[in-house]
Amino acid sequence: MEKLVERHPIGLVITSLPIWIILYAALQPIADAIVSISGLPPGAHVTEAVRFFVFETPKVMLLLTLVVFAVGIVRTYFSPEHTRKILGGKSLLVGNVLASMLGIVTPFCSCSAIPLFIGFVEAGVPLGVTFSFLVAAPMINEIAVVLLFGLFGWETALLYVSTGLLIAITSGYVIGRLKVERFVEDWVYQVHSRTGAWEETVPSFRDRVQSGFGAVKDIVGKVWPYLVVGIGVGAGIHGYVPENFMASLMGKSAWWSVPVAVLIGVPLYSNAAGIIPIVHALLEKGASLGTTLAFMMAVIGLSLPETIILRKVLKMPLIFIFVGIVATGIVIVGYVFNVVY
User: Is the dihedral of CA 20, 24, 26, 27 positive or negative?
Assistant: First the structure.
């Protein structure tokens, strides 16, 4: 397979796309057939849990593969050096907007936090703009978007992207206005030539397509176990958890549910592949949209590993400010959507 990708990447795309469409269209009949021949009693809890699992798992995997491939190609247009050049010299608010939007399409994760932070500081990118990027990059990722689209539809996916952007822009802007540069570790401002420059090359379209296949191998290969476990947990909730119980725990009437969901989500580490199928099942069982959205954003956007890594370059007061502002924004979003929906 790897040799085929190296030799004929474009031809592989042309032949694979019709197969993808056929498989996606056949998912529901296949899932119904599997459940019918399983001998499980119709309408039973276990039957509905199995139906959920056998339909949602291949559906999300197919969507994830397609979107990761496309984003893998898009990301070849945004090298770290290019991103720094785009954000350098921009005013605070304009920079916050640009940084948040770039965070959606750029291939950076928790492990990139320190070199990116240093590179942005060295390039003269304002601190608040840097934080907008650091919030948007993990929170609004292609895995979360494709899972939300596949499980809930484009309206919810768009809602997630727009609210995530709003939180990233607002958080970065507030941090920039607070003038908290003194809470950045002193050694960061002393780094110049040691950071080095990322080498920039202009890849061909063939190279970009190969990069898309590489993204599928890397990202899907890493997250599929979390995806299967998440859908498995979601299937259990879908089949067995009573609706009244979940509505009382995470419904609109429980005013305390949003801040509690965020408090639980902040230290809890998972990725979108593991958490969103669970969110899907919670919503089906009566949990309110605002509460579940707040929980999901807290888990994905306030990643515990990223926060620990950032401690290398930030002093504790700025860590608390960062987490506090983002968490407050998520709580507000949760309450707003509980009122509107």
Answer: positive
